Amino acid sequence: MSLSLFAVGNYYARLINKRIDLIEKIILLIRNLKIQIEYSKLPLVELFDNALKQGDFKELRFITNTVKEIKNGEQFYPAFKRETEQFMKSSALRKNDVDLLNSFAFQLGNTDLSGQIQNCEAYIELFTQLADSLKQKAQGKIKLYNSLGLFAGFLSFVILL
Amino acid sequence: MGQVKIYIVEVINLSISNAIRFNNILTLFPLRIKNLLYQLPDRTKESIKEIRVRKSKPIVVVSEKGNSFLNNTSKLTYIYSESLPVVNGEEIDEIIKRVCNYSIYTHQQDINRGFITVKGGHRVGICGSAVIDKGKTVSVRDLNSLNIRIASEVYGCADELMKKLFYNKVPNVILAGPPMCGKTTVLRDLVRQISYGNSGEYKKCVLLDERGEIACVENGECYCDVGPNTDVLTGYTKDEAINIAVRTMSPEAVFSDEISDDSEAKDILNGIMCGSSFVVTSHAADLTSLKTRSVTNVLLESKLFDYCVFLGVRENLGRIERIINLRDENYEKFRNSNSVVKPFCGGELLRKTY
User: Which residues touch B95 (CB under 8 Å, ≥6 apart)?
Assistant: First the structure.
């Protein structure tokens, strides 16, 4: 019983860690976009293309697919939204994370340079807060399930005696 | 007094047809407008010069025949009615986003200046409400009106001009005419021909393409043929471009589109003093207009320019209407008299020169 509680605790913690990893990748991506917007002023498609070449963003499959769709003449935001929602189904990201990501994309490219930089900074902050709260949550879950496991183990030991 | 002589230039179109160019720019429009425009007959598409979209107003199509409205059945009508399909604000926003490749921040300066040049050299004019800070436009909001002007590349449209003025030399020339008379198209063909050595030898040419609509440069490659011996400076302001051209490229001929303020005129004169020849275009219907506009008056008064060429409109679109020899004594008389322009210039005076 204690082992199974340990296992459940670790499983949830691992899920949250996966989600944190993805969110940290998203933060890195936004940082990358911000730097590119600030210094090269390239169009969005090229920004994403460069980000894919430079950083380790292959895990964020929605970027590759969005770029493909834009190159085929799709509009940026609908294509991005569709791809992130598709990505959510097969990844550890939750609806809240995807909604936040989509609201970032909604502003992307629609303002002048300083507006874009501020948009990136605001969403880096929001995603960082999200990641921090998830880290705390993961720690809390591990602690909770470990304590429950210990308690259950102790309880079963007492019952067996 | 000489007589006005109208030179008829044969226009041979060896380039992409206007209908194809027209279809290419349809990618800028949202689906509804795209479908309406796509269904226009090819013959109509060939003659279209501009597409104008305005918020809550019908689509206006400008062709050689004049202004017309696009109706619900993809036909052009010359009579306005309330039932014509109108463009909504979201569609205007969508066009802007498409024009900017969904990256408005990359075109903020262009929007502030009132136009964006898109792939293929087509120019999109933008109207909205300016946000002014310290006397300068820092941003434009509430964009409400767009003018998509289809670029055309006409091979050979500068042939006659080449024969008359550019044989074995490159004089300083002002190419003038009202809007949409083909100044840019003639300038593009002129730089191409001079660069290819049609004036007698291969001249080192520099093209100052501030708006990117002459050479249509994208990713460093020219999509319009401006010749094998032409360096293109895109996006620079005129003064920067002239300085770079003269200091680093040692050009024999410099070509510049639409000069618009006095400082540009001074930079051009500096360039001429450095030993380069300049061919520039300017909006002006006649010599009086040229003299009235301060920027072109600076050029005329400098006595450094040799010729002024006026292009025709409508049925004479892209054709030379008049050539004025600015070094001729009759022009000098006019210059000193401040009188209304008389038809003293043209072929006869030119014949004296050759």
Answer: B28, B29, B30, B53, B146
